[in-house]
Design goal:
single chain, about 230 residues, Rossmann fold, 7 strands, binds S-adenosylmethionine
């Protein structure tokens, strides 16, 4: 298990008393990122690595890029990547990691503050739109993800990796089922202009924060725009 995956298991404590709608604001995420020198490992997510390995590099949009682990990895493989996130603290950190990685990778990366609750990317603009561990409430999610899928060019790829609903109760996470979704549910939001290449709840070894091995599952959807 990578450190990245371990960190995702600690994302929120179960039973947090808060207004759930704050979880998608700049204030919430700036404070979270500001509370620690690194929230995530800086490594690429396994889903992104596995699902993009066979793709020729092109332009990519990394949505909710956080500290930039996925975007940096993609840039290192030749992708021109735009990382977007609601948190400027995260984006500044990602930019520092890119600078440390060297001029070549840095030159392929841009970082822009965007709030997905209001912003939509341009249509048919990216060869790859990738979203890792972005858990929006159901109604917002369907609208946001439809807009993100619209940003993929014909022949391009829409990739989503997330915590599966199978993990609810397995590790401490916000227990609102509305925040979780299967790949099948996501795929149902794509019409016949899409070819579904991967749609699964993919098991991976994890650790319970209180110790002990558990099997976690990632929701993985990869689809290719046919027209
Ligand atoms: C669990 S983190 C995942 C970060 C990164 N994708 C990764 O896998 O390491 C979720 C990310 O979504 C971002 N986010 C939350 N609400 C958002 C919103 N309304 N608009 C854009 N980004 C948002 C957060 O700032 C955070 O970086």
């Amino acid at each position: 298990m990578s450190a990245h995956e371990a960190h995702h298991g600690h994302q929120h404590e179960a039973g947090e008393a808060e207004d759930p709608s704050v979880r998608w604001t700049a204030e919430f995420w700036d404070e979270r990122y500001g509370s620690s020198p690194a929230l995530w490992s800086g490594h690429v997510n396994a889903v992104v690595m596995t699902e993009t390995e066979s793709l020729p590099p092109g332009t990519a949009l990394d949505v909710g890029c956080g500290e930039g682990g996925d975007a940096l990895w993609l840039a290192g493989r030749g992708w021109q990547v735009e990382g977007v996130d609601v948190s400027q603290v995260a984006l500044d950190r990602a930019a520092r990691h890119a600078a440390a990685a060297g001029a070549e990778a840095e030159g392929r990366l841009t970082w822009t503050k965007r709030d997905l609750m209001s912003w939509r990317p341009p249509e048919r603009a990216y060869d790859l739109v990738t979203v890792s561990f972005m858990h929006l409430p159901g109604g917002d999610r369907r609208a946001v993800y439809a807009g993100l899928a619209d940003a993929v060019v014909v022949g391009g790829t829409f990739l989503v990796g997330a915590h599966s609903p199978l993990d609810i109760g397995v590790v401490p996470r916000p227990d609102d089922p509305d925040l979780y979704f299967t790949a099948e549910e996501l795929a149902a939001g794509l019409d016949d202009r899409w070819e579904i290449l991967t749609s699964e709840e993919r098991p991976r070894p994890g650790r319970h924060p209180e110790g002990g091995a558990v099997t976690l599952h990632d929701t993985v959807l990869r689809a290719r725009r046919l027209r």
